[in-house]
Amino acid sequence: MPDDDHRIQVNLGRLLAERNMTLAELARRIDVTVVNLSVLKNGRAKAIRFSTLTAICDALGCQPGDLLEVTR
Amino acid sequence: MLTSRWTRGDTNLLTVLLGLAFAVEAVIGVLIPALHVVGLFTAQSSRDVGVSGLETALAEAGGLKLSAAESATLTVADPDLGQRILLDLPGLFDAVPILLGIYWLFLVARTLRAGDPFAPRNPRRVFGIAVLIAVGSLGDSVLTAFTNHLLVAGTPLEDHVPFALQISFLPLGIAAVVAALAEAFRVGVRLRADTEGLV
Questions:
Q1: Given an 8 Å threshold on Cβ–Cβ distance, is A32 in contact with B199?
Q2: For residue B60, is it within any domain?
Q3: Domain limits for position B169
Q4: How many domains does chain B have?
Q5: Domain presence at residue B146
Q6: Is residue B56, in this structure, part of any structural domain at all?
């Protein structure tokens, strides 16, 4: 299966907007670079570490299912 | 504890050495033989050949005997164009894979310098170097045997210089090791591709 052949949608932008949080602030809180978070937010990431996922969910008070969804 | 760290200075040194090696090989392996072939450079027109039926005692003392039985130096006193081609052909053939191999090594070194040794093209380059070593070694053996045969064909020396391939297994072993290195590079490229885009 090609690397880009997936239907995972990342809802980081929506979650941040709902919490009035900027990407830079989240990056500072979870100690991940803004560049990497931007890659994730814009759907260019191919994979996400469990540690990153845990940190984002902790910081945003959400579940992995809120952040990621499979589009139809 | 043994630590090994490849620095940018090492890469620069490697690049300079590869450049020097390329220049030296271009002169010694291509330019001088080519000038010799066209008659613009006088070089020693001889080569070592395998012989048979010519055992010669060189020295004997204290129960020890030094003799030459398997190889001798074939010298062509005043070679014509055809003989010069035969004399220099194996050397010229060797120069091609050597120069190409140095060039590919240079390209690999350049990716190392850029901090990207697992560039997608590097496995092919390294595997290509392995093929060059193997083919160059075998090709040199075949060409040397053929040109030896042609140099003495039709002369009284023909019976003493048998057509014989002298295959060295060391270059083939080195080629196998380099091919294994290419496989390691290929796995590295795949791992890099796996981690690209990992957040």
A1: yes
A2: no
A3: 8-45+77-195
A4: 1
A5: yes
A6: no
Burial class (CB in 10 A: 0-12, 13-18, 19+), B101: buried
**Which chain B residues are within 8 Å of A47, Cβ to Cβ?**
194-195, 197-199
Cβ-defined contact of A49 to B193 (cutoff 8 Å): no
Please tell me if residue B197 touches chain A, with a CB cutoff of 8 Å. Answer: yes
Residue B50 lies in a domain: no
Domains and CATH numbers, chain A: 8-70 (1.10.260.40)
Give the pLDDT confidence score for residue A30 in this predicted structure: 95
Per DSSP, the residues of B64-119 read EEEEE-SEEEEE-SS--HHHHHHHHHHHHHHHHHHHHHHHHHHHHHHHHHTT-TT-
- Reported as a single tens digit per residue, the pLDDT across B78-133 is 889 999 999 999 999 999 999 999 999 999 999 988 888 899 999 999 999 999 99
pLDDT digits (tens, 9 = 90+) for B131-173: 999 999 999 999 999 999 999 999 988 888 888 888 899 999 9
**CB-closest option in A32, A37, A45 to B197:** A45
CA B91 from centroid of its chain's CA atoms = 9
- pLDDT band for position A29 (cuts 50, 70, 90): very high
What the block records as the tokens of B161 is 């210089």
- Reported ipTM: the value is 0.75
Per-chain mean pLDDT for chain B: 90
Contact B141, B169 (CB under 8 A): no
